[in-house]
Amino acid sequence: MSEVGKEPSAEEISRRTLLASVGAAGAGLAVFAAGAGKPVYAAKGGSTRKKTGPAPKAPFDSMRDWVAALEANGLLMRFDRIDQDKYEITGLFFRATDQYSMYGAPTMLFEEVKIDGKWMKGPVLVNLYGHWNTDAIVWNLPAVPGDHYATYNGAMVYMKDMLAKNGGKFPELPPVEIPRDQAPCKQVVLKGDEIDLLAFPFVKTNPADGGRYVNTGSHFMVDAKLGANFGTYRAEIKGPRKLGINIEPNQTGDKFLKAAQKRGEKSVKYSIVLGQDPMVWLLSGTRLAPRFTDAPQDELAIAGGMRGKPIEVVRSEDTDILIPAHAEFVIEGEVQLDGPFENEGPFGEMFGYLGPVKENNYVMTVNTVTHRRDPWFTNAMTGMQRASVTAPADAMYSVLLGKQIPNFVAYTNPQDAMGFVVMSIDKKAAGEGLAAGLKVAQRNPIAKVVVVVDKDVNILDRREVIFAIGSRWQPNPASKIIDDAFGLQTDPSQVKYARTSKIVIDATRQLAAEGGREVFPETNRALLEQGAPGIFEHVDKLYGEVLRSWKRL
Asked: Which of 81, 219, 325, 484 could form a disulfide with 183 if both were Cys (CB 3.0 to 4.6 A apart)?
């Protein structure tokens, strides 16, 4: 084992516990206690960061900077220790989303975690990008107090403006390579039998999972013809130096490995990066970068362009693969393309259900690990949390749909209701609602239930969407079923792999030419706004703070 470099003091974040919550809203979490009789403490509302200087702001060079910004914005809860042998992290997080919703739950940091009978030093963090406000914080945009929808829409406007200024694509800034002695991810180097992945606090999220997982890694690969790429794929820890790799068919990583197999190569070496900065993590798990165009796409350059500052990179130990220098933990290994292969899973999938065992998956032999001193770890609460900020993907998809769908207004893919997407249009003619929904259903594998609503419906507010379905939709004739279409592989309802039926629901007001009423009545809310102009601004000024400060029971 070797150590190099110094921990950058600018990225330090205070380690301290918090006083138990005194409000009824936090009481349910504050009383939660971890193993060995040592209590954990839940955060009070507001900032929980020590006043050691100004909080980091975008662009964020590291995950630690990002966590410090979350803490400064009152979105971090710290806990001394928690017993994951009893699945306390999972139970606690489910309770947090029960109380605050997937889009309202805070980030959680656990200083010590009990795993396989041992207390392991963390911290371990979950839900780094779950809250609505993270879409504003990550771009250094203002959050609208008490109005998460306005905050998110502000991020959408920012993203669309970025795309408009760059010809419909996100801008690029090539990464900058720095010396390895300046790269925090190189502070500790482990080789061969020095490595024991089981000695680090990677957790088993659910009792039904196949084991402990490295499930927030960006897998960095380089192919002689396809170029460089990185993507997020889960990896089951099968031994101190062995990982079961799960890359779904047709994902980019699978195409890289199969291309190498086709060329007759026996193995592929690549790096798995953990504890990424927000932009690298965003690019790792989304389709924001164009795939397989004439020229290889530099996703690190796109990450740099989106944040307005180049990503600092360093070369891997065993290959020339460039990786983010400010990462927390890097696993370098070799995947045998001609086997042996092993089963992997089961695992709790993004739809919120247990997925099947994957047969004959790739296996990685780990040869090198590098990490920061006292590395931080993240665990994806898959199917329970929003994986990353979503405004960039929603904005890009909205720009594309705006070119294809007449009178398009807005689009969203709710992360807490996989398979369900919502779009609004300013309908002018009969048939526009169903036609718009069919275009989304035919090109988006996630879109199994497509709901189209009028422009007066807030598509981010599920209550308004359901209200529109209940009051404006007639199943006949305002529905269309597609019998067989490409679907997301992790959908548990599918009988045939990656194939699904779909439904389009036109919940817009049906025009007379569509069999609707000659005159559709106005909503009570619309009539209020017409008869009492400015009423909402008026009550917001008088009573807005009272409503915002009320603690929910």
From this structure: 325
Q: Does residue 79 contact residue 69 with C-beta atoms inside 8 Å? A: no
Q: For 196, which DSSP code?
A: -
- H-run or E-run covering 425: strand 420-425
The full DSSP string for 365-401 is EEEEEEE-SS--EE---TTTS--S--HHHHHHHHHHH
Q: Where are the domains of the chain?
A: 2-161, 176-378, 405-521, 527-553
Q: Record the pTM.
A: 0.85
Angstrom distances, CA of residue 213 to CA of 114, 145, 395? 15, 37, 32
Per residue in 49-106, pLDDT tens?
A: 444 568 899 999 999 999 999 999 999 999 999 999 999 999 999 899 888 888 999 9
Taking the mean position of all CA atoms in its chain, how far away is CA 356? 22
Structure tokens at 416: 């807490």
358: helix, coil or strand? Answer: strand
How would you class 149 by CB atoms within 10 Å of its CB: exposed for 0-12, middle for 13-18, buried for 19 or more?
middle
